[in-house]
# Entry
Amino acid sequence: METLKLRIETTEKALKTLKAITEEPYSVIVRNAAIQRFEYTFETFWKVVKNYLDVQEGIICNSPKSCFKEISR
# Structure
């Protein structure tokens, strides 16, 4: 359960940094930073879903696609 809380906090921080970069004026560097922050945010989010399914539901999934299929059932 502690791991899940930590992952949620990490994801919230990642979402804040993603939101912050979207408020910057456009440039190639900002675009690249936004892409990188999106990738990192997505990774942290799907790992939250994976951990939640494991801890709360007892469901094991090993990829983002399988985790999102399980959570939408």
User: Anything to note?
Assistant: The mean pLDDT is 95. DSSP finds three helices and no strands in the chain.
